## 1
Amino acid sequence: MSSRRRRREVSPLTSAGLIRFYEGKEIEVIKISPYMLILFAAALIAFTAIAYLIGL
């Protein structure tokens, strides 16, 4: 089969007028380093533990 005759596979959602999620507009994402993520998680755990012990 030549490359001209090959048809792009169309999913049912795209034929219904809906687009696949990766074909949409690019969105901005928040970039957080792994170190900051672990630090934030540890702080949240510590805050929750302290609030539980105090009785808040």
Note: The mean pLDDT is 76.
## 2
Amino acid sequence: MKGGAPLRQAGPARFAPWRGVRAPALGRGLASGDAGAPARRAPRAPAVAVGALLWGLGIGLASAQPAVHAPGAPAGTHTVQPGETLWDISRQHLGRPLLWPEVQQRNRVGEPRLLQIGRVLQLGDAERQAVVMAATGDVRLADGPSAGTLLVPGMRLPEGSRVRTGADSFVTLRLPDGSRATLPSQSVLRLVHYFDAQGRPAVLVDLESGDVESRVPPRPRPAPGGAWRVRTRMATVGVRGTHFRVSLPQPDRTAVSVLESAVAVNTAAQRGQQVAAAQGLLVGDGSQAAQVQPLLPAPEWVEPGRAQNQPEVLLAWHGVPGAGSYRAQVAGDAEFVQIVAEQRLPAQGDAGQALFGGLAPGTYFARVAALTPEGVEGLVAVTGFSRAQAVLEGRAQLLAASGEIEFDWRPLPGATYRLEVADDEAFRQMRVQAAGLTSERVRVQALPPGQYWWRVQAEVVDQGQRAQLLSPPRPLSVEGVR
């Protein structure tokens, strides 16, 4: 019998493990925002340009390695390296590995897994365009003949494209030089150009509203002046680093945060102002305008390994002194290419927390950073967590032949279980506690007649992350023998 149907039992209780049957692995997914109305264009801020001048610094990012060209070869080519396949090359240059047949056909490659080392492959015009690596929610082209087009992974964007993200929407672009630009919610970015007049990589993007996070790969030698620039209307920032952020917290302010290496800031009032790693700069009318300041430290997580299987994911951290607000993000990958959710929260007291709903089962990564009251974003704290299936289904039934009650529930691969039976729904007065079970079935004999409640807890370790899932309390009625 199921649920609260009466079960006729008598006598003392005992346990008999039952051989379980494993189910296939749970599927994984990523929640994405729903498409919404296009965001209204925000007022433009004074101009700031951020240029990356890299001097052979390493990144160690497999998804954003620089293109490999033969000496003297033009852009749009790739020189085959040991161990590479067309799958790898397509992922590196076109943003999607499944586009490898296009490279194969263009170069008349027979076996895509056996490439001649040193061969120069022609990539065509695709290598001269940006590629959408990941997009979540309402991400669209903002103007031009294709205005309103929803961006999807693998889409190519020519020079001059203007990209807008709506509420709860995110996009990561791979530019032709191998760099990455990630836009969070409510941001507008124009891709002005990717090359200079001589055909050399020279990225220029205009940040019109919101934020942009950039990762720029190393170059073999010093790049020409202004080879990688993020521009607003307030200043020019030359970057010798690989990871930095530019944001417009207000129309009259531009905030720069450097996470790796260093930048040089040029404004109308001052040129060449150096900002090192773990430092920030605010250009505008705020009290800290044009003053280099240390970035706020990364927040410290509260219970980073806690189970995240309730309807909403709870992220909690200790407060950071001097913080005016926090930004918390959730992504499906450790490099935050595929961001799926974000919240910006005011700082309140000695702790902070964010609730995220709608996350499907799977493995996720979360990061949080504190922002100054003026809007300069600090260092980030990162953690990972897993979500199991949303509901752990179960049932209880009487086995008439043996006089036992059999409990069983939907199995989870690799899980251990704990069965609890109590006199009350709050489980304060326990009747049965059976922990360390590896089977999804267990038998209990001879509970006294009465009304009980039962539940089961599952614990799973997935990719080093511990996840717990607790079934809802279920009623159990046991009648005496008539």
Note: The chain has two helices and 32 strands.
